Amino acid sequence: MLMLCCFKKDVAKSPADVVVTGGDSSLQVRTPRGELSITLPEGVTFEQGSCIPTPAGESCGEELHFRLRISVTRSTNEEASDRVMETLRAKETYCFYCQGCMTRLLEDRVFKRVLPLPNGNWNTIVDDWCCHPDPFAKKLLPRAEDCLLGDTFLLLPRDGSCEQTLTDEVSPVGSEDSQDPKKTCRRLALISCKSCSLVLGEAVTPETLKLYITQVVVEPAVGDRKPEASLNRSVFLERVIAARLLELSNSLSSFHFSVQTPDGKAFLLLWLLNSDSITASVPEMCVGGERSIGSPALHSPSPRAARALKLLYTACFHEGTQQRDIVTSWEVNAIGHPVVLPLKVCEELLQVIDDSNSTLPVSMRRMRSYEVAYLRL
After folding, report:
1. CA quadruple 331, 211, 355, 287: dihedral sign
2. What's phi and psi for 100, nearest 5 deg?
């Protein structure tokens, strides 16, 4: 497997200034500015002597590019703690926590049944199945002690503990001044954490909760074990969405995703290019100048490489002609499996993806009319 390394020319002026070697589960990089050790993911090793300079192209005058070969062995111990859909099992006990403040939201739950819902766009193709009015118009709701799994949410029966931990608020969805007179403004009963006010999902009915997997942490109940401190919000969101996109692409053989708000409005278009990327972004301060023994940087953890998804993306509200053409093409050709998230989460996800794009070398930030980003698993 090939890996691309890129250096700014203020770190190394020529290929001869860069020496890359492999250590014990690490990559050792030496430049005139200093030495750096990058920890590799489990199962990834560098093939000694395989690092060679490659042309960077006319638009990359301030960059040096190298290709190196790595060996990848899939680990049986790869973490899947953020994959809620793979965690839930029938007849096991689970705790549900608010991702923002780690407050326990529900009493411990034991589900008799954990069942998948039809995938996100099933109701848009029901006309292809039936020659008479939609027989599936009735909402699919969980029975007592059921858990139903959507693409990005869980449907659960409400219990008495919710009165102490959750708040309800009715919010309009969609434009009230829509040009279409037949299109009325729909209202959602939003569910929020009473402790930190984080919006967790919706009340589909007075007895049914819809909790988004980006808003809650689900853990098996094990004795009196306390939940670990909540992950940084952007890190948690990145891992959850990356894991879910990977699961959906594997199960549906779909690589195009339309991130939508609950009213069905497309917000962000994602094109999954590959799922076996490995990325490491090293701040310039880590390779800047010599380090003294007392320097905090000397004792700071090594930069860590991580497995990641490589994506092409475009935001649906961009004004550029090329971006509008992409959005129109996806809509006309019904490209993109819907991934429904609250508007605030869509905005957070776009910020995470934009931040990823900004860390890439300038020459690698765009491909055709799309922008490029990586989501770490």
Report:
1. negative
2. -70, -45
The alpha carbon of 130 is separated from its chain's Cα centroid by a whole number of angstroms, namely 35
291 Cβ neighbours under 8 A, 6+ residues apart: 34, 297, 298
Tell me the pLDDT tens digit for each residue of 161-171: 888 899 998 87
Residue 295 confidence (pLDDT): 41
Residue with the two structure tokens 């990559």 = 27
The size of the chain, in residues, is 377
HEC-encoded secondary structure of the chain:
CEEEEEEECCCCCCHHHCEEEEECCEEEEEECCEEEEEECCCCEEECCCCCEEECCCCCCCCEEEEEEEEEECCCCCCCCCCCHHHHCCCCCEEEEEECCCCCECCCCEECCEEEECCCCCHHHCHHHCCCCCCCCCCCCCCCCCEEEECCCEEEEECCCCHHHHEEEEEEEECCCCCCCCCCCCEEEEEEEECCCCCEEEEEEECCEEEEECCCEEEEECCCCCCCCCCCCHHHHHHHHHHHHHHHHHHHHCCCEEEEECCCCCEEEEEEEEEEEEEECCCCHHHHCCCCCCCCHHHHCCCCECEEEEEEEEEECCCCCHHHHHHHHHHHHCCCCEEEECCHHHHHHHHHHHHHHHHHCCHHHCEECCEEEEEEEC
Cβ–Cβ under 8 Å, residues 313 and 271: yes
Average confidence score pLDDT of the chain: 82
Nearest to 148 by CA among 160, 138, 157: 157
pTM: 0.84
**Cα–Cα distances in Å, from 38 out to 52, 56, 83, 134, 305?**
18, 23, 26, 56, 7
